[in-house]
Amino acid sequence: MAKIIGGIGASHSPTIAFAKDTNKGSDAAWKPIFDDFSVLQNWVHDQKVNVLFLIFNDHITSFFFDHYSPFTLGVDDSYQTADEGGGARDYPPASGHVALSRHIAQSMMNAEFDLATFQKKPLDHGFFSPFSMIAPEKDGAAWKGTVVPLQVGVLQFPAPTAKRCYQFGKALRKAIQSFPDENMRVAIVATGGLSHQVHGERCGFNDEAWDNEFLDALEANPDALTKLTHAEYATKGGFEGAEVIMWLIMRGALSDKVKPVHRSTYLPSMTNIATVIYEDTESVEPVVEDTQLTHQLDGLEKLQGTYPFTLERSHKAYRLNLFLRNLSDPLHRERFLSEKEELMTECQLTKEEKDMVRELKWIEMIQYGAIFFGLEKLSAVMGKSNPEIYASMRGETMAQFQASRKVSMQYSVGKK
User: Fold this and answer.
1) Same domain membership, residue 252 and residue 315
2) Whether residues 97 and 161 fall in one domain
3) Does residue 264 sit in the same domain as residue 325?
4) Taking the CA of residue 305 as centre, how many other CA atoms within 13 Å lie in the half-sphere pointing to its CB?
5) Predicted confidence (pLDDT) at residue 286 exceeds the cutoff of 80
6) Angle, CA 324 vertex, CA 321 and CA 326 arms, to 5°
7) Is 292 inside a domain boundary?
8) Phi-psi region of 238 (alpha: psi -120 to 50; beta: other; left: phi over 0)
9) Tens digits of residue pLDDT in 220-238
10) Do 252 and 372 share a domain, yes or no?
11) What value does the CA radius of gyration of the chain take, rounded to a whole number of Å?
12) For a designed S-S bond to 36, which of 261, 275, 303, 407 qualifies (C-beta 3.0 to 4.6 A apart)?
């Protein structure tokens, strides 16, 4: 089974990324940031950590308020840096551990945490500011490990409570420790904080005494922190500083008693930049493989002609499903009708995917990984009805299919 080595807490201020990208490591004002993060970097290297589960919040870069979830798990194989207004950072993508992320997603759902998932989204400074300083770069070589990112929706209320974050961590521990890989060494990384406020007349607020009180409780009495409300966190640590509730996910994922290895804070300007390391003490019962992990889907394999839309299928056919979904956009639809081949090439469809779309191979697209609701958009664009798709998938003529229905009817999702 996978092993949780310990937890890291680190601020994710854009200050950190700026300092790294502009080589400020030797400047007196910036040196403490580099010194503190080097401790984290060396620890990850020395402990042979090969997976970072990194908890962060996005800053309306890739996650906006048209669809804003409390907990959103990355399930991709690669994560790029996002453009936050001045161009994306020149930093290599982080490699994702897709098998672990899928395992965690299913395990957390089984534990009744209703996760959202994401892929093909670039990540902003909430992720890459700390990651680019933590991931070891020894002798000019980049860290070879992988990541699983978790985006927490702390910007818009209602938001997850401190208690819910701590409970999430407890379930996350079980999920990771039941992953069947004895060579996997995981560090749980929580980002954000400490005290700061960046909006309104109160911007510039800090309270270093509260920050130390928070860190004391996080180590020795995290349960006390679960009792604080969002308003109390904002009062004590600044409105944006209330994002430190994400650190309770990390703490919940560790053993009840932890070994503190490192702790530092540095307040140069707007944010009290903090770094901590806690090592897991394994003071829990041994974890075994979760034999009930897939029980919600067990038996579906016996349903002939049925193709559950799993994360595996979603990842494989993402490009095709996105192409079909975008047919609901008038400009995409117009280009599809007028210059289909050029559009499919531009959207990087493979030869196989192009052929299925071009020839309207309905059942082949389903078997490949397309979801039906993309097919019905394509059929509407092409002037086809839903029953024509159904008949084709069943290998029947329209007359045969309609004869199997109580009422023979034609319809589609098209306007007419």
Assistant:
1) no
2) yes
3) no
4) 7
5) no
6) 110
7) no
8) left
9) 999 999 999 999 999 999 9
10) no
11) 24
12) 275
Over 60: is that where the pLDDT of 329 sits? yes
Q: pLDDT tens across 61-118, in order? A: 999 999 999 999 999 999 999 999 989 999 999 999 999 999 999 999 999 999 999 9
Query: What single letter denotes the amino acid at residue 286?
Result: P
The tokens 């944006």 sit on which residue? 240
Q: Which residue has the tokens 């093909």?
A: 120
Closest of 244, 245, 238, 241 to residue 201, by C-alpha:
238
**What is the C-alpha to C-alpha distance for residues 205 and 321, in angstroms, rounded to an integer?**
46
Give CA separation, 308 vs 61, 75, 109, 296, 304, in Å: 31, 17, 16, 12, 11
Q: Strand pairing of 71-74 and 146-152?
A: antiparallel
* Residues 186-209 pLDDT 10s: 999 999 999 999 999 999 999 999
Residue 286 is given by DSSP the state P
- Asked whether residue 160 falls in the same domain as residue 79, the answer is yes
Which pLDDT score is estimated for 388?
95
Same domain, residue pair 91 and 119: yes
pTM: 0.91
- Residue 4, strand partner residues: 186
Q: Tell me which residue range forms the domain holding 398.
A: 300-403
Q: Where are the beta strands (DSSP E) in 13-162?
A: 51-56, 71-74, 78-79, 94-95, 116-118, 146-152
Active centre residues (catalytic)? 125, 196
